């Protein structure tokens, strides 16, 4: 990441290249700052960011297949298996075979997992709201629109 900061400072490309690199680095710095603050809180609950992501997804969306969970939290299939293994060892989630397709594993919160994530989410939400309070409601809407625009344009490139 530091190499990118140097690249912008030393890059002598076109105005578009310099602006693109500068915007990218600014976006990454903001995202990293927010993630670092939220991750400190998550670690305080003895969870990794991946574990929290799975628990939060299951809390809000209900039981999901392992494949759907991987897509929701932007994780690889191999990594999601390890995260679920660890959450299962802590009795926070359980695996069951799908009644529709026994090859599909459904992941759901246990009562312990539901209680734990239910206690964490309100404080997590407060921290997010506090960090985003630097923006007006209009700016938050615009930020979402712009991030979505960048994200969707890059998804389209993958399919080409």
Description:
With 160 residues, this protein is mainly α. The protein has 2 domains: 1-44; 50-159, Arc Repressor Mutant, subunit A, CATH 1.10.10.10. It has 7 helices and 3 strands, in the order αααβααββαα. It has a 3-stranded antiparallel β-sheet with strand order 1-3-2. The longest helix has 30 residues, at 15-44. It is globular and about 55 Å long. The relative contact order is 0.09.
Give structural attributes.
160 residues; mainly alpha; Arc Repressor Mutant, subunit A; 2 domains; three-stranded antiparallel sheet
Instruction: Count the beta strands.
Output: 3
Helix content: over 70%
Overall body shape: globular
CATH class of the largest domain: Mainly Alpha
Tally of helical segments: 7
Q: Going across the major beta sheet, what is the strand order?
A: 1-3-2
Per CATH, the superfamily of the largest domain is Winged helix-like DNA-binding domain superfamily/Winged helix DNA-binding domain
What portion of the residues fall into strands of 2 or more residues? 5-15%
Q: What CATH architecture label of the largest domain applies?
A: Orthogonal Bundle
The biggest beta sheet is recorded as: 3 strands, antiparallel
Structural class: mainly alpha
Q: Enter the CATH topology name of the largest domain.
A: Arc Repressor Mutant, subunit A
Output the radius of gyration: 19 Å
Average of per-residue pLDDT values: 87
List low-confidence stretches: none
How many domains make up the coordinates? Answer: 2
């Amino acid at each position: 990441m530091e190499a990118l900061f140097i690249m912008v400072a030393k890059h002598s490309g076109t105005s578009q290249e310099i602006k693109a690199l500068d915007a990218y680095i600014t976006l990454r710095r903001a995202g990293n700052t927010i993630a670092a603050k939220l991750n400190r809180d998550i670690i305080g609950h003895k969870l990794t960011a991946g574990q929290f992501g799975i628990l939060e997804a299951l809390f809000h969306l209900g039981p999901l297949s392992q494949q759907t969970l991987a897509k929701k939290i932007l994780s690889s299939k191999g990594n999601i298996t390890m995260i679920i293994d660890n959450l299962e060892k802590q009795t926070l989630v359980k695996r069951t075979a799908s009644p529709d397709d026994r090859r599909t594993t459904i992941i759901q919160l246990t009562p312990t997992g539901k209680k734990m994530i239910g206690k964490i989410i309100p404080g997590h939400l407060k921290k997010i709201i506090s960090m985003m309070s630097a923006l007006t409601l209009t700016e938050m809407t615009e930020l979402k629109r712009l991030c979505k625009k960048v994200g969707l344009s890059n998804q389209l490139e993958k399919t080409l």
